[in-house]
Amino acid sequence: MALVVQKYGGSSVADAAGIKRVAQRIVATRKAGNDVVVIVSAMGDTTDELLDLAQQVSPLPPGRELDMLLTAGERISMALLAMAIANLGHEARSFTGSQAGVITDSSHGKARIIDVTPGRIQEAVRAGQIAIVAGFQGVSQDTKDITTLGRGGSDTTAVALAAALAADVCEIYTDVDGIFTADPRIVAAARQIPRISYEEAMEMAACGAKILHLRCVEYARRFELPIHVRSSFSSREGTWVVSDPNTEGSEMEQPIISGVAHDRSEAKITVVGVPDKVGEAAAIFKTLAAAEINIDMIVQNISAAATGRTDISFTLPSADSTVAVTALKRIQEQIGFEKILFDDQIGKVSLVGAGMRSHPGVTAKFFGALADAGVNIEMISTSEIRISVIVGQDEVDAAVTAAHRAFDLDADQVEAVVYGGTGR
Amino acid sequence: MALVVQKYGGSSVADAAGIKRVAQRIVATRKAGNDVVVIVSAMGDTTDELLDLAQQVSPLPPGRELDMLLTAGERISMALLAMAIANLGHEARSFTGSQAGVITDSSHGKARIIDVTPGRIQEAVRAGQIAIVAGFQGVSQDTKDITTLGRGGSDTTAVALAAALAADVCEIYTDVDGIFTADPRIVAAARQIPRISYEEAMEMAACGAKILHLRCVEYARRFELPIHVRSSFSSREGTWVVSDPNTEGSEMEQPIISGVAHDRSEAKITVVGVPDKVGEAAAIFKTLAAAEINIDMIVQNISAAATGRTDISFTLPSADSTVAVTALKRIQEQIGFEKILFDDQIGKVSLVGAGMRSHPGVTAKFFGALADAGVNIEMISTSEIRISVIVGQDEVDAAVTAAHRAFDLDADQVEAVVYGGTGR
């Protein structure tokens, strides 16, 4: 008997009909002879509605109370799901994050899981019950206050619980069939990837593919827990995220590129005329770190000999740009830079593939394809298995399409389809 | 510095504007130099909306899951109230029933409080914070599952917490000005009662006055905790429920009747032709008790010598009548009674007053007033400080009006106004 952990997102349980459909799928998994633990998000727009209520009573609600408020959402969906399963003749019990033993730090709104003690879940499973657990939430170790895990929180709950329970698989149900070689809305020839490595899935997530969140893949990788990303609207196999996607008797060579991801949510800030002295760049990024801003790519030009000054450009989430510019302006006099340039009309296009480690020509081919498509590159950043470029936001589609074709990912070009992200 | 416990019902926090208004009232109490602990119900129609969702996924939802679902309601209102208070510059922290130490038995949907361990609330108060506690909910001692307290649950939470915290007063905020000598919608001359005893308030609650629930007054009486029932829409003094309402330097004689309560929610069942043998009545009421039906009044006629049979009539909540009739039909053959008569077109009118102990003529005066008003009495029941009669449902208004006038309760008749219930 296998232990299957399933996670259903808000779009899968948006209304009573959705909850009933999910209940049937869970019962089918149980009937197939598995123990089942389910993690569920809040119904459809519940979280947005609660946020709206909060805004009506306070422009800046305290984090502790906002977490208390938002966790009502999963409480509703998990209780309803347990009822719907009971109505199909199977015993189900719902558990809050706290009851399920999801122990976090005290950072309200973005708490990190520091321990999982799923005693009550194990007890329920031993008693033959289906356990339904609230995603996205936990309880702080120090203050015993209710916390939320922030973006991608429910996926992280699912993987963390699956790891703590030594589950055989963690199934992440979503509204698409899995991970694709590129966003099908941009590249019609994009194909679903059957298997992919943790490392590649992490790079894809970091580069804008929204199907799986970086945190959840990191967690699964640490515990070597297989993730199966699939649609709650069909019974098709989805994408497996595993240690080595090529183990399964496949003798074929690893493809160079697994997929093309893109991200339109970043902005670019350039600090112009920074005195080229030791410690100036450090001062800038220390200020940004103090403002809790996550920097993505950084480029520093060689200083012009005549002026002894240099320009530093970096990208960051657009949502953080006002805070970043304000923080930088406060240190303008102290550092002595000339001005700040801001551009949120950018996009990031990334090639991801474990195979590029052994293929030195990838960069040249990628840049060549972009040049042929008339796309200008503004910034470049690379890792061992990824190349990212910043381009104009209106050139993202052309760049993704050109890269996808250049690396033979189009559906009519390859036999073994590999990997990508929808970029939603 | 006094410790004030305040309870706000769902109509007081029905929307963002209501929550902000309640927040201002709480802050005003704090600014007046008091420590404040607040118990809050779910917003307006939230509970009904959640029940409706539950019905959509399951016709008979398990009690444990229904409690998990419904407790989301207070979680939302208490977090929003804490935010609204924070927005006024005061520190507030919300606590679930479980966090506030409300320990109950495991009877989902109608749990009883068996202990209150308010350590976290005391800690918050000592830290100068305003504690906001979810009404209506607790956690079971045995299973650690979330429970709800059933009807009148938030009032009971308020009184139980106030007792455990040794509060100076428990203020119950509602949408009327306090307890009245009769329902003002029936008796225009009804007057608000300034002070009333626990015993009288309990009889009023048991006889259909809906302002305070019986359980909550019982609890307050046991701990001699003063309750102040008042409106959240005005700053007027309301009704004080206390041990001895006449202590305050008043030398006037206790009024005979404090108020007239009525109740249209009961039905009457008559079991016709019960063999007049030892144990038959016991068998009937044992069956009803097993079906968890609360019987109110019981009348058994003297058996007719010719037949050796008798009729037994009793009243019960109309909502329970289908279950009761079904249970009785199952034992009809065994007991050998002839038939069951059912009547839900009845009403109960009750005179309540501690003064009637020393005034033997009350019953005669009450029945005389009803006779003059042409009201026929179907059943009678009495306690030391109450007389109740069952009348036709369409005669309730006439009976209440006649009794109110007969005992000099009308506003233009008495100086010291005493006591009653709105009967909502």
From TrEMBL, chains A, B:
Keywords: Amino-acid biosynthesis, ATP-binding, Diaminopimelate biosynthesis, Kinase, Lysine biosynthesis, Nucleotide-binding, Transferase
Pathway: Amino-acid biosynthesis; L-lysine biosynthesis via DAP pathway; (S)-tetrahydrodipicolinate from L-aspartate: step 1/4; Amino-acid biosynthesis; L-threonine biosynthesis; L-threonine from L-aspartate: step 1/5; Amino-acid biosynthesis; L-methionine biosynthesis via de novo pathway; L-homoserine from L-aspartate: step 1/3
Cellular component, GO annotation: cytosol
Annotated ATP binding sites: K7, Y8, G9, G10, T174, D175, R185
Domain ACT: 269-354
InterPro entries noted in UniProt: AceGlu_kinase-like_sf, ACT-like_dom_sf, ACT_Aspartokinase, ACT_dom, AKii-LysC-BS, Asp/Glu/Uridylate_kinase, Asp_kin_monofn, Asp_kinase
Binding site for substrate: T47, E74
GO molecular function, one term: aspartate kinase activity
Catalytic activity annotation: L-aspartate + ATP = 4-phospho-L-aspartate + ADP
Matching Pfam families: AA_kinase (PF00696), ACT_9 (PF22468)
Top EC class of this enzyme: transferase
General function of this protein: Catalyzes the phosphorylation of the beta-carboxyl group of aspartic acid with ATP to yield 4-phospho-L-aspartate, which is involved in the branched biosynthetic pathway leading to the biosynthesis of amino acids lysine, threonine, isoleucine and methionine.
PANTHER family: ASPARTATE KINASE, ASPARTOKINASE
Similarity section: Belongs to the aspartokinase family.
Protein name: Aspartokinase
